[in-house]
Amino acid sequence: MIITGRSREGVAPKRARESRRLLRAEVVYAAALAAFAVLAVLAHAYAYFAWDLRLARLIQSDNSPAWAAFMDWASVFGNRWTPHALTAATALTFFFRRRRSEAAGLVLSAGGGAILSNLFKFIVARPRPAAELVGFAYQSSEKSFPSGHVIFYVCYFGFLFFVAYALLPRGSVARRVSLVLAALPVAVVGVSRVYLRAHWPSDVLGAYLLAGLWLAFSLATYRRWKRRATFHTEEERT
After folding, report:
1. Percent share of the chain, pLDDT over 70
2. Closest CA relative to residue 109, chosen from 210, 237, 8
3. Contact 211, 113 (CB under 8 A)
4. Number of domains in the chain
5. Could you give the residue ranges of the DSSP H alpha helices within 125-172?
6. Which range marks the domain in which residue 40 is found?
7. By CB distance 3.0 to 4.6 Å, which of 149, 162, 200, 212 could disulfide with 52?
8. What is the pLDDT of residues 124-142, one digit of tens each?
């Protein structure tokens, strides 16, 4: 392929824009990583913060049955064995539909998120909110920081959001519905975990930061796998 002078003029600004976008992404990534590190250190030192208690009590102030039922539903996908079953079933669906890059990317995102969640729970070792502070104690043997539910939701539903955005036809009803269904659980699970007395708001914030970082890494890895798979497919055709 011969690149003319006019073509070179078009390539240079494009590369400059890509470099600026990459730099901005790296700055955001570094800032989020630093924020999580500071929050994790403080969560290890303090069982909760003053703003945790104020915000938690505000979130927990609505005792209507309908809202309580919605909060219970919002957390159901992260309970017990459900995350493992959802991840396995979705990955197998991708695999048998010949979406192997998507299957591997989902396992990396959700599985890696679970490992990070357990690792930082062990390192930070923050206790769950005490009954005398939030009304009743959440029954769990796991530590509080970060929220495992939030990490799973971000890594699982966040990955599905990206896949739907990238693969489904632009402007289609299926794409719009899929994006809403993937985004809604991520948006409400954090409030749910605080409302159910399972976590402090800072546990939820730490989980969103950590999961966002891991999701970004997983998506970058998935895109590399996707490009490699596409390249090999084109080679086989030629």
Report:
1. 88
2. 210
3. yes
4. 1
5. 131-134, 148-167
6. 5-237
7. 200
8. 999 999 988 888 878 788 8
Torsion angle, alpha carbons of 203, 154, 219, 14, to 10:
-90
Nearest one of 30, 22, 38 to 213, comparing CA atoms: 30
pLDDT digit string (tens) for 21-33? Answer: 777 878 888 999 9
Query: Does residue 90 have a pLDDT over 50?
Result: yes
Give CA–CA dist 113/129, Å, rounded: 23
- Please answer whether residues 169 and 112 qualify as being in contact, where contact means their C-beta atoms are separated by less than 8 angstroms: no
Q: How far apart are CA 172 and CA 182, in angstroms?
A: 16
Gap between the Cα atoms of 75 and 30, Å rounded: 30
Averaged pLDDT for residues 97-112: 95
With residue 217 as reference, give the H or E element that holds it: helix 201-237
